[in-house]
Amino acid sequence: MTDMITDQPYVLPDWESWGLAGLKILLFVGLLAALWELINALTHVDDEQELFTRRNVPYAVVRIALVAAQAIAMVPLLGYTTGAFWSELGTLAGWGVGILVVLLALGAVGNRVLGVGPAPSASAGSAALPAAVVQGGFLVAAGLVFHAALSGTAPSIGTAIASSLVFAALGLVALLLAHVVMMTIGPFGRHVRPQGSNLATAVMTAGVLIGLGLVLRTAISGDFMGWGAGLAGFAVTAVAGLIGLLVLVWLIDLLIIRSRHMRDIVGRDEVLPAVVMATMVVAVSLGVSAVQF
């Protein structure tokens, strides 16, 4: 086999490249801080009191999930290169603000859409932890969908914007529909208590949501190859990935913790086994998302 290694020396980036990279990182951090401060302004909640004095775990879970979702969604923007200094910064700033606004909206309505009651408030206390865990899983899954929608290339700026918006919307719709399917015919779905009333149910639901987000990331990500091919590829990959994930979740239920099935775990509100099972679902989803259908 021919050796493909070249003798070309490594060329250090110039000062403009270093400066652009530094500004991107500063803007990235600034957008994360902006979301945090904007939530503070909209809710009139004292973060230090909730996190350090009251030790409000549900509040912390949702805030952590928002930061993680925003960071995951914006990562492709850091690697976006055009060779134009202000174009790259403007792209990061524009899409970053858009992600911030959408995540705020999803944080406000996510739990109602998922059917587990209102989003946890700062004063709700530990009783709101199941809803907070579900909302956290949904936000991280949404971040994975946005990450995929903003990756890849397109023939023009207009096409890139349109395809990112369309596939992000399709990804969120598919996430909710797949969630309904898993909660209906999955190995524990029919045994889930309404309104997120126990923590084991919430942990399993969050794990499934993140797993679905990983699968949908594969269905969405990639270069834009035309609307027909893109939509068909999304549909085929999303359906195949969902079926594969559903089958593997059934296998996890049968093989991992043999003394308990998922329906028993959520029925008895056994949190630690639920964490183990949810982690396995996410781990399996990483494998499913790496397969090219």
UniProtKB/TrEMBL annotation:
Family stated for the protein in its record: Belongs to the UPF0719 family.
Topology versus the membrane: Multi-pass membrane protein
Pfam family membership, one: DUF350
Protein name: DUF350 domain-containing protein
Main localization, broad class: membrane
GO CC terms of this entry: plasma membrane
Localization in the cell: Cell membrane
Keyword DNA-binding: no
Residues in coiled coil: none
